[in-house]
Amino acid sequence: MLVVLSPIRTKAIHEVIDSRCTDELKISLREEASLLTYRLSKVEKNGNVTYTLYFYNISDNLYVLDTKTNKKYYKNDKIENINPGTILNLDIYAIDSSYCKTYKPDSRSIRVPYYNKFSTSELCIGHKEYALCKEDINVTLTEEQFKESLNKYIESLEQKRTTTTTKQTTNEGNKFNIFDFIIKYNEYISAFGVLLLIIYIVVDIKITNKKRRSIL
């Protein structure tokens, strides 16, 4: 699974002592930092899920610092074993050999998606629309609590279907069949009676259509 996220960016910080770090160099470093991209990849191993962050387009003049671990990452590096739901705060700096050492042209804040281990449960088959079956949500329930909640959801769907079916069956069962009536009693129906029956049919059709729309 590949996840591409838009980072939260902050302004460049000017913490440079060396006077040789000119404005032109800083502008160039900021432009290079803006080109940095990344990709998040989900890794499943032994029933556990972590994420790997791959960096792309890191300039030779820059490195990325994980502010939590203080680890530095350079061109073609990656951060592995990231727990779901982690927020990575990354600062981009000019390399130590640069005149602009300690200059930070950019920062990124990356939120790693949560992972719901119950999303692959057999109970979720056909119920992916249910909140507890979605993959990227934070679920703190036990397995028993999850099963109980999902079973209640499934039962509510069945009750809703049964109620809808019962209403439709009742409406159809109580419906007066005007055509059967005409066939059975046609010899007793006058011309005026036929007119009344036609009016009844039109009104009955309108009422039936209105009931169907209310059910839907």
How would you briefly describe this protein structure?
This protein is of the alpha+beta class and 216 residues long.
Could you explain the architecture of this structure?
By secondary structure, this protein is of the alpha+beta class. The protein has four helices and nine strands. Strands 2-9-8-5-6 form a five-stranded antiparallel beta sheet, covered by helices on one side. A four-stranded antiparallel beta sheet has the order 1-3-4-7, with no helix packed on it. The longest helix has 32 residues, at 143-174. The two termini are 38 Å apart. 13% of the residues are buried.
Structure keywords:
23% strand; 216 residues
What is the number of beta strands?
A: 9
Annotation field: number of helices: 4
Helical content (DSSP H or I, runs of 4+)? 25-40%
Q: Which strand order do you get reading across the main beta sheet? A: 2-9-8-5-6
**What structural category arises from helix and sheet content?**
alpha+beta
Instruction: Round the Cα radius of gyration to an integer and report it.
Output: 34 Å
Beta fraction: 15-25%
* Poorly predicted segments: 4-8
Q: How far apart lie the N and C ends?
A: 38 Å
For this entry, what is the oligomeric state of its chains?
Answer: single chain
